[in-house]
Structure formats: C-alpha cells, structure tokens
Amino acid sequence: MSTELSAEPAERGTDGVAGPATPPGADQLVPTSNGQVTTGQTSKVGNEYHFVTEWWVEGTVEEVADIIGDPVGLPRWWPSVYLDVQEFKPGDAHNVGREIALYTKGWLPYTLRWCFRVVENRHPYGFTIEAWGDFVGRGIWTFEQAGPLVHVTYDWQIRADKPLLRRLSFLLKPVFEANHRWAMAKGEESLRLELARRRAATPEARAAIPAPPGPTTTSPLPLAFATLAALALAAGAGYAVLYLIRRRLRRGRPRQYQQEHQEQQPARQTRQTRRFTFDPDRIAHFEAAGWRAYYDRNWPKLFGLIARLSREQFHMPFPESLLGAYYIARAAAAWAPQRHDAQRGQRYYEQFYRLARRYSGLTFDPVRVAELELRYNDVHRRLVGQPDKREFVQTMTDLHSATFGIPARLARRSAELRVRAANVVDQITSRQSRDVEADWRRLEDYLRACYRSIRQARRAALPAT
Predict the structure, then answer these.
(1) In whole numbers, what is the pLDDT of the chain averaged over residues?
(2) I need a labelling partner for 462 at 20 to 30 A (CA). Which of 201, 222, 265, 400 fits?
(3) Which CATH architecture has domain 2-216?
(4) Is the pTM of this model over 0.70?
C-alpha cells in the first residue's frame, strides 16, 4: 500500500492495462558500493558516489549528442554548473583521447577543478569519459531515440578527492548528493532551452527563449551561512527523531515480548483481535500525491506523505511512522539502479512490513509481502513499453491478496485498476498527456476505485473484520 508511493512507475502506455513506459526524469542516486543504483546503497567508503540520472527531452539523438558532446560549449548553455571549460589536448578524428579541464560548482559554496578524457565515442549514441582531479572516476553518457523523445542517461561513478568532500562525506553525504541532483536538474532545464534555441525559426523566436539558469551567488558567505544553519537544524531534528524512535522501541520491546510469550500465545492472535480499518480515498490521495512529488523531485514532501500514510492507514505511532518511511526510502534506493541490490531492498521492505503488521491489525507474512514487492518492482521494470501487462496484473493480484488477506479472485479487480493507474502516470511523465491536470485526477480516480475494491473484497471474505 504505502510502498507503492516510492516504486518506479511503469510503462509508456495506452489504454487498458497495457501501458506507458520508462519513467522519465528523475535523478536516481546512490552512494556506491557493491552495485547499487539509481537506487542507492551507501558506500562503505565515505567519499565514493554513484549517480544515475535520466532525462527525457524532445529532439533527436544527433541534436543531443552535438550539444552534450561539445564540452567547450558547456559554460554557454549550462552556466549554472560549468563556469569555465578549456581543451588542453585534442583527440583523434572521433574525439577519443580529447582532454578537457573544467571549473564547476553547484548550489553549495564550493567549486571543483577537474579534468576528463574521452575514452570511447559512440556518436550519436553517447560517449564515455574518465575523470581526475577533485573527482576521480568514470562517466557514461547514453542517448536513445524513443519516438519524438530522446532518453538521456548519465551514469557517474566517482570518488570525491577534494579535501572538503573527502573529509566531510561521512557526515554530509546527503547534502553533497542533493548538490549533484540540483546540478543535473539545471542541466535538463538548460538542455531543453538549448534545443529550443537551435530550432527557433527566426531571430525573434530565438530571442523569446529564456536564458539558461545561471550559477548561484558568486559570494560563498551567504550560501555558507545558510548551509551551516540548515545543517545545524537538520542535525538537531535528526537527533531528536532518533531519540524518540529509540525510546519508543525500547519501551515497546518488553510489552511485545510479554504479548508474544505470555501463556504461549503467539503475537498473531493479538493482532487478529485488532480490527484493520483504512480509508480508500485517503490512500488514493496519498499515493497520487506521492507519485507527483516523486516526479517533481520534492523528496521532503514524498517522505512526509509516506510517514503520514503509515500513521493514518497502518496506524503506526509517530516515531515508528518516520522509521517506516525511512525503510521504504532505503528499499527504493536499493532497487533503483540497474545494478541493484535486491537483497538489501528486501531487507528494508521486511523491516517496514514488520512495523506495519505490528500496528495495523493485518496478519500477513512480512517476508512474503517483501518478496512480492520486489517482484512488483522487477515486473514493472521488465515490462516497460510492452503491450501485454498480464504478468504485471498477476503480480499485483498476488501482492494485494497477500497484504490484505483476500482471495486472489477478489484481488484481481484492484490489481487491474492499480495497473491502469500506473499507465496514466506514465503517460503524464512521458509527456504524452494532452491534459496533465485532468490525467492526475484520472489517476487518483483509478487508485480510489482500486482501494475501494480491496475494502469491498475484505468485507466479502472477512465479514467479521
């Protein structure tokens, strides 16, 4: 239920349960380690990072390759990040061996000096670079034509060697990651503007196109003070939250142990006496808002929605709802990359569902439901762009049946509606929607019908609950 807020929406679709594809847009990030992802697993080495960013822009691969493949032009069309770029060694006829020196920044009050060498050119389908200096690592640009759109992927796996980053990554890694996401979001915006400028038919049309976003304040002091203040507030809030969660969990363990072992009665019997209630319309609202926050890259809002959903619908106390939202976020991060860590993702899903079972009154098996969540993620990703969504529907049927304790035959309708909702959101994010606001409303309508169907199925199968 709540976990689907952070799941990767599906295919680029049409009508019925067949549908939309590859979710455009989001910057998927992950501190590196043993494979990881746009999905993210924190590296054991504090200053190593792995980011996978995806953009969808209107144009051709040739246009995109000409723009991104010309590093000297970066300060002109991506000035928010690239302050100065100089070529200090030309490459061969295919630009392989070309070496570039760069002076860059993000929204944080520091700059970076680094270089890269083009080690592979697959024009117009991408190229690969090796970096050294304040960054050491490898970046892979990939361009794929998808109808009128170009799917741009940047796989950036690096070690941060700038002393500031190297020494503070163990503490400020989330802030540095946010800095990267900001830079890539500005890049996508700037690329769209550059493509529009190149297509402008007249000087007047070209002049009407806005300038690309510029760099943040050149003076580091205001930004430094703001950053330090934000970090102090975040650290204080984080400490308070962890204290409350630990206090709550310490208090809960003796009571839980007593409930589970007193008179040899399993905890499941205690849960069965608690009635599980939920509001289908509220779940639909949270899930639709969560999808929107995900594609708007509004991560604080998304986290807050998952926490509120956990409190309202799984009936978790406040501290545990924050912990549950954290588990879901980590599970999504572990799954996101192509080289994802499925075992880590399943562990976080299991932890979330153990909390949900403890407070909701549901009697599902957390291990089984966590396995189905991973299967859902896998099927959703594999069937991107495929017209036949029967496997997707079957997976959602199994997930709803296992989670809500209803027979598969009664869960089928909610599964079909849930897949239709995924199709709508993918039409929006792939920019195939003719009326985005109307489609967001239609998405919520499908979700509302989905969860009403689950409530009706529970009443039919379990009249006592």
Answers:
(1) 79
(2) 265
(3) 2-Layer Sandwich (3.30)
(4) no
